[in-house]
Amino acid sequence: MAVLVIADRDGDTVRDTTHKTVTAALKLSGDVDILVIGQGSRAAADAAAKIAGVRKVLLAESAGLGHQLAEAVTATVSGLAAGYDAILSPATTDGKNFMPRIAAKLDVAPISDIIEVVSTDTFVRPIYAGNALETIQSSDGKKVITVRPTSFDAAGEGGSAKVETVAGADGGKAAFVSEEMVKSDRPELGAAKIVVSGGRAMGSAEEFQAVMDPLADRLGAAVGASRAAVDAGYAPNDYQVGQTGKVVAPALYIAIGISQGHRRHQQGRRRPDLPGRGLRHRRRLQDRGAGADEGSGLKQAPHGQDRARRRKARALFICGCDPGRTIPA
Question: Which of 80, 85, 139, 299 is the most exposed place for a label (fewest CB within 10 A)?
């Protein structure tokens, strides 16, 4: 059984989501190849070749692949599918975009967001917003699978796979127009070791920024937000963490002003069926702010202030966990 992993690339490197997807692939077979797609991606392919357990790296380049157009990725992977029994990708925004298209091209049912590999045809994935786990068995000749990266350990380095060049397809009638990117010195949310998140109880976009930004800068953390905070316009969409947002696995997670949405917000655990699993410490600070010094940028929230501030103080909780274990988000 041969398995193809589609790399999650970031410039000249591959993200650790690729390493974690390789771990899942190795549970299916020892014959694991990585496909690096893009334009000018040789350095990323060389980095992927160093992942332990990888047989070889395929490098596909074209103008359409340079911007990860789903049509170009689908055409490229479909042309390689004959040589593989399973195709895996991290369950990232890009992966969720092109993997269903690949499954449709191959006329198979996609298997999404798996958290465990039971056998070569049986997998476990969360359903009902993470309140239940489903074990599914696929009879399709080819498996098209997205992997929840936080549920697997990252594969190590030390590999020496060879890099081969393959043909990259273009996007057909689809063409790249433009993109808007926000540059930040903070860690990427999905890979951050410390995450601070704010909820609707922050009250406004100004208050969200006044509290969350100084705290994140002080801790060297990434900033996240609940869906309610994003929907209210307090934070941009790429800050959203939870069932309909990003999955995180930090060593420390701090949530401020998140209460009623906590169930949906905490999706992304390694074991979503065990709500308290991995938590070492959790406490609520009622009407006290954060107890930090004045230089931290955090404000006190004593009695007598507006309702939103009191809700914010009551809803603040701090979660600590073993490094690498998925924390409620």
Answer: 139
Q: In b/e form, how buried is each residue of 84-100, taking b as 16+ CB within 10 angstroms?
A: bbbbbbbbbebbbebbb
> How far is it, in rounded angstroms, from Cα 224 to Cα 230?
10
Q: What is the pLDDT of residues 25-50, one digit of tens each?
A: 999 999 999 999 988 889 999 999 99
Distance CA(171)–CA(12), nearest Å, equals 22
pLDDT tens, residue by residue, 105-118: 999 999 999 999 99
Whether 122 shows a pLDDT value over 90: the answer reads yes
Other C-beta atoms within 10 Å of 251: how many?
Answer: 15
Judge contact between 259 and 311, C-beta under 8 A: yes
Q: Specify whether the CB–CB gap between 241 and 212 falls below 8 A.
A: no
CA distance linking residue 242 with residue 178, whole number of Å: 28
pLDDT higher than 50, residue 289? no
What is the torsion angle, in degrees rounded to the nearest 10, for the CA atoms of residue 149, residue 234, residue 303 and residue 266? -20
Q: What is the pLDDT of residues 229-253, one digit of tens each?
A: 999 999 988 889 877 778 787 888 8
Residue 141 burial by CB count (10 A; 0-12/13-18/19+): exposed, middle or buried? exposed
| List of residues 6+ apart from 5 with CB closer than 8 A | 18, 21, 22, 25, 32, 33, 34, 35, 88, 89
Which CATH number is 2-167's, of 3.40.50.1000, 3.40.50.620, 3.40.50.970, 3.20.20.140? 3.40.50.620
Question: What SS3 class is residue 288?
Answer: coil
CATH class of 189-320: alpha beta
* Choice between 8 and 169, residue whose per-residue pLDDT is larger: 8
